[in-house]
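re: that complex we talked abt at group meeting.

here r the seqs, copy pasted straight from the sheet so there may be weird spacing, ignore it
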Amino acid sequence: MSRVTRFAARDPGPSARVAGFISHLRDNGLRLGVGETETALRALTHINAANPDETRRALKSVCASTADDVAQFDALFDSYWLNSGRVREKFSPSDRSGNAHSRNSRDANGENSTARGQIHAPDEDAGASYGDGTGTLIASRTASLMHHDMRKLVSPQDIAAAESIARRLAQSLAYRRSRRRRAARRGDQLHFRRLIRASLSTGGEPLTLPRKKRPDRQMRIVALCDVSGSMTIYARVFLAFLTGLIRADDATDAWLFHTRLVRISDALRDPDPLRALNRLSLLADGFGGGSKIGASLAQFARGPARHCVNSRSVVVILSDGYDTDPPEALTDALTRLRKRGGRIIWLNPLKGWKDYAPVTAAMAAALPHLDLFAAATTLNDLASLAPQLERLT
Amino acid sequence: MADWRDLQQGMAEHGYIAGDDLVMALHIALSLGRPLLLEGAAGVGKTEVARVLAALKGARLIRLQCYEGLDAAQAIYEWNYPRQLLAIRAAAEGGETGAGVEARIFSDEYLLERPLLQAIRQAESPVLLIDEIDRADEEFEAYLLEILSEFQITIPEMGTIKATAHPMVILTANGTRDLSDALRRRCIYAHVDYPDRAAELAILQSRCPQIDQYLTRQIVSFVQAIRREDLEKTPGIAETLDFAAALAGLGINDLTHDPVILQAALATLLKTQTDRANITTEVAQRLAGQAA
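got the structure back, here u go
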């Protein structure tokens, strides 16, 4: 398992291998430039590079630059330097969850597309829906089909349309202006305190005239999208909308949840919209599975919300409210979010239906905590939300 | 070549028990002369790394505490305007020529060194700690990029000052906002996490050797258990040490003995109203019971 990879005899040497490793990391989403290859090589001269453990730590400190990178680094290291990533692993298919469709890919880069084993875990299974499959490279046919579908799901035109709608929404959410003034290069008033201070250096003559203005206080949108089984048919609209939201404004944050919570903002910010969707589909494994709205929101409220939700945030939840968790979890999570001071908007695709009443336990529990509960089935529905959002802020 | 083990050993002697990942990152950063970026929750000992490194290397520790609105004048240098002004007035009365005065008032004597310039101008490599860089504005991050990659500062009136000895730079961040990629790329990175049981035990033993073995183990188990509870502010190592010191000060030798005192000592671990309310006497007793 942990035998060091034997490279081919024609392999040109350690520097090429390290360069190969860096590009392996790059393929897996770490942001590394040419400079890092050099740094990595130099770092290796300062340690005992024959010791895999030391090499692992040294390369980790050079190549990983966020906590997420650190978390995924070990698996990437193993798959490149240690045999586990290269050699076909024996595994016995379990008769429970469609492993019969699994196959091994011997391509070392396979990890890129298929890191997460089985996709469709049965609903009654508690917790996350990805299997911890044997070895990192086992792909399942269902998984690749799913990725394919996701790509078909959203077209570039959709994204463009959604982007313009999202931009309009983001604008209607923007809080006009702050009441205080801050120093700014171009402002409407003189900044007297700075002016006097600056005039000291010129013997009391005010030669530089610093200015101040009212800064814009942008509302920050945090979107949480439910991609559980019951939401699959609306995914097309919502994913396009999310992509639009994210691309319209740098401060926006987006998350997907089904049985667990995944942050997708970085994936969606990829300059190429189609590649962004590809990356999204990798993140959304478990797409179409069961839904744990309460647990996912609770996880969000307790963890990430501390950093990204404050009184200037709007939390947008896109979900149909069919939850397998008890409604208390949801109530608790929403109360927590509320306390952080943001506004909460729930967009429910079912609300557009005739005679819809929010009778599901989760929806009924959530209603008292919401600032706005609105229908959202098509992009047009979303577009018509603008005036209502304006009233909210 | 295994001198990163020596580094670990040295840090341990100065009372800092560091994980392998952290020491390796520090070793690489020192060997390559690159800044080290430490990220992690509050209270896991990020700032302490700099202090211990300074003690270990016998170097001076220069600290720059970042805050919102920190600007170049506060971080790099500033001219001592009032003194310059006085000098000009005095010169005018003494009948000195303009050029002479100018040369004088833009000399070292009238320059107020702030931490970054100070760090650059030391004769021996100091340890430069840039604390909580994520609190500073993005513009400040941009200033920092030049200094961290070139180790030089340009003062228009005096020219460019190059570092005589490269400072050992340590930056800390705890996720108030995302740092720019440019800054991350220039740094060696290490993520500092809450210590596991064994590490925390070692830390406590080295920092509070006066507390007896049994209580030390109990404290560590108790804190580890409390970290698993649903808290708003998870206690860090600093809190554990305070907690241990408090218990020692109260003269306790078993956590389970006195619920009232335990509850009082919890003031050092739990820092918000909600957390205090969550960990009731019963919960604390249960955790202490399991810890024993």
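couple things i noticed - Chain B touches chain A at residues 1-2, 4, 20-21, 24-25, 27-29, 31-32, 34, 37, 39, 79, 81-82, 84-85, 88, 175-176, 181, 184-185, 187-191, 230 (CB under 8 Å). The mean pLDDT of chain B is 87.
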